[in-house]
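Feature request disguised as a bug report, sorry. It would help if multi-protein outputs had a clear separator. Right now it looks like this:
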Amino acid sequence: SPHRFCLHPGLSEDLVDTHPPGGHSLVAVSVGYFLEDSVDLLCNQKLHQSWEVLFHHSVVIVCFGISVLLHQYVGFALVSLLMEINSIFLHVRQILLMSNLAHTTCYRLTSIVNVGTYVVFRIATLAWMSRWLFLNRENVPPATHTVGTVSMAIMTPMNIILFYRLLRSDFFK
């Protein structure tokens, strides 16, 4: 989070080898969460309903797994976790839809906050991460750079498509 850069200034200069206390553990726990959620989706949803989320989770598990195993790029993984702030509002929105509350003020407010946090925490974070990867291409080993670049090339269109679907569903019916 932004305050982490203030509390741990080295993070803003070195996302490869520097991370705040507990950062490595947070990324490791996140791998566990994405693994558990993947198993849950495989057991409780049809594949055609959940393939996009499973694909997303696979990319995150690979990237975070590399970070956890190498004890490197933990700072970069922590930056990517900013996207999960938006997940709160995505999930609240989904719960309201499943509860047939789509025509309520609560849903409308959640929808607006969801779109706002989507732009700030997903789109802007992905853009920043892509920029960081591009600017640091000389300092990142080719294999790691390739994994990062391919991941950004997968995540960015997925998030843009989801954003379009959200806008179409909630604002342009």
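(second protein starts here, but nothing in the output says so)
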Amino acid sequence: LLLSVPAAAPTGLGMEVMAPTTINALNGTSVKLSCTFNSCYKVENKQFSLNWTYQECKNCSEELFLQFRMKIMNKQLDRFGNRVEFTGNPTKYDVSFTLNNVQLEDEGTYNCYVLNPPDRQRGHASISLKVLTKEPPKRDSTVAVIVGASVGGFLAVVILVLMVVKCVRRKKQQRLNTDDQKTEEEGKTDGEGNPDEGTK
């Protein structure tokens, strides 16, 4: 199994969904298609929803093959049979799955859609799966691993900080909206209860 350098794919205002842009897998092996997300709210199974779809080509229609509504439901496409295994944990913001016995025909785009109310925006990330017929030659990747780990760690910290700031701002805005509504209602009450004292 060979993975490209992961890249965050933030979409929408409500949440960020992260997944590698490209994954390489050796024909006949198992591969994990990783998809995680950030949300300001705790995952509640009654409201949370997840869809995984497959696209054979850029302009092809999307085929739903895995869904979460209260529980995981596999849509058994003839293409995958029973080779799809959900290996994520929504309560830990992980909705990854594993594709077993990878075939050349499995190449294509895999779309991960996540919705976690009260977030209103549905998050989305795409993964391009490339199937290799032979393992590429090994290279000394020590430097690449160090650089990748450093960059990945930095990005993770940045995303975490931005997420915290966004959540704080959102909750503050919700409080301000509530306070404005209360002030408006109190103003109406005062206006109705106090006669004009300037006229005698």
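Even a blank line would do. Unrelated, but nice: Residues 1-12 have pLDDT under 50 and may be disordered.
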